[in-house]
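ARCHIVE CARD
SHELF: 3
SLOT: left
DATA:
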Amino acid sequence: MYVNKIMGALLAVALIILALPTAAGIVFGTGGHHGGGHGEEKPIMERVSENYAYYLPISEGVGAAAAEEVFDLGAALAEASVEDGADSFRAKCSTCHTIEDGGENKQGPNLHAVVGRNVASHASFGGYSSSLGEVGGAWDYDKLNAFLENPKGYVSGTAMSFIGLRKDGERADVIAYLASETPNAPAFPEPLPEEAEECVPTEEGELAEGEEAVECEPVADNESLDEMTPAEASAEGDVAEGGVGIEGDFAESDAPRVEAGDAAAGEVELPEGEDAAEEAPSEEAPAEETEE
């Protein structure tokens, strides 16, 4: 009898444990028959932000297309603050590194005059990882920027456990501070050239709010006339609008010209002094066909 009571109690506890997730889903709307299972599913980042205070943003879906933003290191260093870099260094780097001239080595080497120094080359420090030694070259600004942003991502297998300086402005400040502690440090790289805005003629009302129109250079009206020879320009101006230009020797002869409105339709006005007996043909000559 006593054994049956114990077994019954254990079975009741097991049933309660199994029923708890379903009951919680029904009460809080996260599952079951009355929860959000039949509603519209929220995006993953929205669900994460509701449940966690700190999180890393991830892209929705697999292979989500995102425009790659180019980081302008030269422009960032030109605006960097050495004072802010010194503060960041003391707060995040001084546990493992010293930077003053002749400073001791800690978990990492002394970083005085590190800009331009060969990678993994501090004479009195022997704790470099083999993977860092394989990088080769000198610590230029590009290498420092990539390594400080993500040490383990840039040098796989490095002994440096620091997560990195992910903020571009803070990283540029620290690099500027390292350069200030390097005698005869190399000059900062030049900022990237600005891309020229494409001139696209737009009609009034087509620009969205906040956009600025890019004015196109006007084309000179006389550009086509400037390319013409004097003879062509003269011939162009001699022919009245709607008139017919006459080429060849006939245009320079003394033959009479027919002006619009000066003679009746189908007749030719003769100059004075000529024989009036010569009459113009009364019938108009058929017009010649031309290719359009």
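SLOT: right
DATA:
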Amino acid sequence: MNNRQKTMWQCMYMHKWDMSVNHVRNRYWCPLCLTSMVEKMFALGFICLMLVGIAGCSKDEEKPVKINFEKREISKEKATLPEKKFLRIAVGSMITPKEGFAYYQQLLNYIEERLGRPVKFVDRESYVEVNNLLKSGDIDVAFVCGRPYVDGHDEFGMELLVAPQAYGEVEYYSYIIVSKDSSIKSFEDLRGKSFAFCDPLSNSGKAFPMYLLAKIGETPDSYFEKYYHTYAHDKSIKAVAQGIVDGAAVDHLIWEYLNRMNPADTLKTRVIVKSPPFGIPPVVVRPGLAPEIKEKLRHIFLNAHMDEEGGKILEGMMIEKFVPITDKAYESIREMRSWIAGGKPEKAQSK
């Protein structure tokens, strides 16, 4: 092999890219992982500066992210509680970008206070890990994406609890985005280009573009020159904005959140495809969770918008309120999954 000739590489996180052997020997590696590492270094630097009282630095953004660190130290009593005393909650899917995570932490604190039971946050990087924990009973509650809910419901009986209402809807969309200055006008124009998916189980960030490919008899390997899995919608948006990839599939809720709150990256992108509506990422519980706990949780979520503290948390998340939802709301995801697998004929059309 010519050491200067580009060839395809794949890292442990399934990112794919083209690079010469010489570059690899010189310790260059995955550009998506490098971007993530740089972001983490900026974040660490920001926290360190905060600790010594220096303000004005932010995590790779034009506006500083306001994160509430005051809540709360774990008491000795709580630290020594047996695992079964905790309600274990995972945030597998957020309808805000990573910078909005502080609001999810505040929401978990809010739930703990009103439930009268200690809540333990369980952190996992991928949707499949969260589904596996729900299946095994190692977590009790989770915020999940629509596709993992459908898979979990059909595989092991994952149960819906509530769903957020955002922008007046309990539905969301997939956006196919490209650079604002790109000549790409349609999904067809992305043939032979580079593309970013989100999580392999993401509905908006993976299933919808896979559906578009399936309709024309293509796969990511046959259609794109190279593609990546970023495992975060805001990373996919940034990858397009910075010219790392030509296009990406992202959750419209996260794109819209950033476009309103911190549009540095979204202003460098534009939407070329909007999917049909899908059931919004819900809050779910594991099968077998005690009915009285489910009812208490449901009451807390459904009424959070009606008190001052809960309302402020939801406002920060750009959630109007939580509402009841049924499995029927996710049928379009199920139909799309079947189409991708070569089953049912399509019922959904992209807009």
